[in-house]
Amino acid sequence: MVLPLLLTKLMKLSDAVSGAILRIGELARPPLPSLCAVPESGAVPEREDGVLWAVQTKRRSLERRQWRRIGHPFFNVERKNNIRTCEVCGHFHLRHTICGR
């Protein structure tokens, strides 16, 4: 019972290894001359360095910026009921904290 399972696993492993060896062999071959890039005489020098700078094409609208900053308009912020005025200084603070003044 274990032997057939072991044999199938070995077959799959050998297939994977042989496939990997074939792919490595294909990568080692030089490309065909017809596929090689031939530099043009009038090539643009900005494109030769291989760097393409990303530029924003459209500005994000004010509505979308506020939507991201504030959130969904139907999102209800829960009201805090534990805010009290300090008897010493008169400022507001949470009930379980002490006055900092």
Automatic annotation (TrEMBL):
Please provide the record's keywords in A-Z order: Ribonucleoprotein, Ribosomal protein
Output the InterPro entries linked to this UniProt entry: Ribosomal_bL32, Ribosomal_zn-bd
Q: Does the keyword Ribosomal protein apply?
A: yes
Q: Does the keyword Cell membrane apply?
A: no
Q: What's an example of a GO molecular-function annotation for this chain? A: structural constituent of ribosome
Please give an example of a GO cellular component term from this record. Answer: mitochondrial large ribosomal subunit
Q: Which domain of life is it from?
A: Eukaryota
- Gene Ontology biological process terms in this record: translation
Any transmembrane segments, and where? none
In this record, what's one Pfam family?
A: Ribosomal_L32p
By sequence similarity, the record places it as follows:
Belongs to the bacterial ribosomal protein bL32 family.
- This one is known as Ribosomal protein L32, putative
Q: Which organism is it from?
A: Ixodes scapularis (Black-legged tick)
